[in-house]
Amino acid sequence: MKAVTAIAIIAAALSAAPLRAAGTKGGDTLIKNAAIGKYSDMDFQMRGSFNASMPENGRTSARFRMDNFRWNVEGYIGKKKNIYYHFRQSFNANFKSNVFDGLLASIDYAYLTWRPASRFSVTFGKQVFALGGAEFRAAPVYVMQYSDFGGSLACYQMGVTATWHISPAQEIDFQISNLRGNWDDEYYYGALPEGTEAAAAPLLYTVNWNGSFLDEALEFRYSASFGQQTKGRNMWIFTMGQSYRRERWGAYLDIMYSRQGLDANGLISRDMVFNDGVLRTTANTDYVSIIGYLHFFLSPSFSAFLKGAREYGMLSRPFEGIPAGLCRTNWNGQACIEYMPTKSRDFRIFLHYNYYALDFNPRSKLLPSRSEREHRLSLGIIYIMHVF
Questions:
Q1: I need a surface site. Which of 19, 64, 324, 328 has the fewest CB within 10 A?
Q2: Predicted confidence (pLDDT) per residue in 93-131, tens digit
Q3: Separation between Cα atoms, residue 212 and residue 19, nearest integer Å
């Protein structure tokens, strides 16, 4: 049993994407009950580090930080194990209750998956958007730094997902979920623009295709999502994820594009500074995110990865004197080496370097005139404590 569990952990870390238990929907857990006889699993997932941040135009600072701490419970119900449950809560997130779903914002997962037939399953509860790509579905405890797009999208929402298991290697998800968990005034950076009427049903509709080929070495995760934000304003998200895994190395490439009637990510809205000091939610925004990742297992005890993200924030129409076109461009580069002294690899010591650069379009006085640059070095640990 320990050998099977170790293999599952290695594969999940190598691809930065989760393994999927038979009959379950999505989820980014670490083990996914790989042992056939295991009905439930409870663990605490922790990542803590000592960070030294070095901005180019600011003071260097250093501190200890708990980067990630989550409680995770999952397992099966029934003799046939055709009902799967998953609960996960983050202790780094806001503990305020969401208005729409009545759950704490800190709860990532609270859902059940029922598989009444071999080729069909349905999931209900709080879950992640069924978007494609690897970064979006990776276990957060392993993601040292998210892309700007992935890190700013409120992706855990109540909803229902129907999955058609076409074959053991392919499936299609049909998901309907809340687009947001709070009222518009709380969700959008500068509330709703004047004269904008709230949508009666702010829902996100997603179709997601997942396929694996070449004996599961090559994997594709593609999705298309549409949601009504307010009356007359909609949001689209398209994602394309490709990953390739071998025994000693793995890689993935994620490409994401989103067109938003109102700035749901809030990145462009936060960049703008108005003379009257009033916060505004930008309208007609576009985001493009391209993420590349390469992971090596150097030995049974050492691994390393390289990650890079290039992202663009644009306006599809002029806004408050800012012409349509490019507003912001950011680049993120990462390098990390991990030491894993135990066979289970549940304990890791890592040294991580992160470089972040953000540039603004100089055509508008509402955007900052100075670019941002930061170097960050982190020495820390990742620990998965299994309770049962």
A1: 64
A2: 888 889 888 899 999 999 999 999 999 999 999 999 999
A3: 12
Taking every pair of Cα atoms in the chain, the longest distance, rounded to a whole number of angstroms, is 65
State how far the Cα of 306 lies from the Cα of 300, in Å rounded to an integer: 19
Contacts of 108 (CB under 8 A, 6+ apart): 70, 88, 89, 90, 126, 128, 156
Neighbours of 300 (CB within 10 A): 11
- In angstroms, the Cα distances linking 388 to 34, 39, 44, 122, 345 are 14, 10, 11, 27, 17
Closest listed residue to residue 213, CA positions, set 253, 248, 242: 242
Tell me the C-alpha distance between 105 and 180, whole Å: 11
Backbone angles phi, psi at 185, to 5 degrees: -60, -30
Q: Which residues of 102-128 are buried (b: 16+ CB within 10 A; e: fewer)?
A: ebbbbbbbbbebbbeeeeebebebbbb
Q: Which amino acid is at 99?
A: V
- Report d(CA 2, CA 8) in Å as an integer: 10
Phi then psi for 29, rounded to 5 degrees?
Answer: -80, 170
Report the chain's mean pLDDT, rounded to a whole number: 88
List Cα–Cα distances, 101 to 180, 191, 202, in angstroms: 9, 20, 13
Q: Which tokens in the block code for residue 258? A: 């989103």
For residues 191 and 183, give the distance between their C-alpha atoms in angstroms, rounded to a whole number: 9
How many CB atoms are located within 10 Å of the residue 299 CB?
Answer: 10
Sign (positive/negative) of CA torsion 140, 33, 254, 289? negative
- State the pLDDT at residue 150: 94
- The residue range of the domain holding 330 is 2-386
User: In CATH, what number is assigned to the domain containing residue 275?
Assistant: 2.40.160.10
How would you classify the pairing of strands 40-55 and 372-386?
Answer: antiparallel
